[in-house]
UniProtKB/TrEMBL annotation:
PANTHER family, sorted: DUF1405 DOMAIN-CONTAINING PROTEIN, HYPOTHETICAL MEMBRANE SPANNING PROTEIN
Organism encoding this protein: Halogeometricum borinquense
Protein name: DUF1405 domain-containing protein
InterPro entries, sorted: DUF1405 (IPR009845)
């Protein structure tokens, strides 16, 4: 029996720090879930706009590589897709949301990207506080606005294990894609635009965050058993 089962609907644990009744209220009701999806979509568009006007910009890369270049917008897109899978399940318990292997991949990737780039942004800005920290009109957004909005990535990521599950293969895929993203960013110089050149320290921190975010997913998520997924597939085939 896992922690999510034993905690009931009001208690919290280290693996489930948000009371489940709150998760149920915000993700199990149409209006609140819709608002969260709208906020995500708006934040995604703001992120895309940033990468359009940055140097290098989206214009400098192939459209097929946009998900690797636009790290934070990719995290938001994956998070939005993960949350959107709850729409057919509205009115039911969030933690009983249906699952299958493609969904385990979506939820795992969303969690890993949200955690990785939520933390990465705070770290990157604070490696050179002389360039970012301040209270001028520009720095209020360049430092405080960007850092705080990205820290909300972590809150959203923590919601996903309440309804999503993972598998070893989904975790392995997430780690492989995270490393590919790191090679693209730092091997070819397409890391998120900064006011300074990323050096060895930031590169090492980013790689460590790839490992940390996947390890955290492995700990926080319940596992989707392969025999359960086969049973779900057989049931779906029988209904057809």
């Amino acid at each position: 029996m896992d922690d999510a089962t034993t905690e009931g609907t009001t208690g919290t644990t280290l693996r489930r720090p948000i009371p489940e009744r709150w998760v149920q209220y915000y993700l199990g009701n149409g209006p609140s879930l819709a608002w969260l999806l709208v906020v995500n979509a708006a934040a995604f568009l703001v992120g895309v706009s940033f990468y359009v006007h940055s140097e290098p910009s989206l214009r400098d890369v192939s459209s097929l590589l946009y998900p690797l270049f636009g790290d934070s917008p990719t995290a938001l897109a994956l998070g939005t897709l993960s949350l959107a899978t709850l729409l057919p399940h509205l009115g039911n318990r969030v933690r009983d949301a249906p699952t299958n292997y493609p969904l385990t991949v979506i939820h795992t990737l969303a969690f890993v990207w949200l955690v990785k780039y939520g933390i990465w942004t705070a770290v990157a800005l604070n490696l050179r506080p002389d360039l970012y920290f301040g209270f001028t009109p520009d720095l209020l957004w360049d430092y405080w606005g960007i850092m705080l909005t990205h820290l909300f990535f972590l809150v959203e990521a923590l919601l996903i294990p309440y309804y999503g599950k993972t598998t070893r293969s989904a975790l392995a895929l997430a780690l492989a894609l995270a490393f590919i993203n790191d090679v693209y960013d730092y091997g070819f110089g397409f890391y998120p635009p900064l006011k300074y050149e990323a050096g060895v320290l930031l590169t090492a921190i980013t790689i460590a965050l790839s490992v940390l975010s996947v390890a955290l997913a492995a700990w926080l998520f319940d596992r989707q058993e392969s025999n359960t997924m086969r049973t779900d597939a057989v049931s779906a085939a029988e209904r057809q």
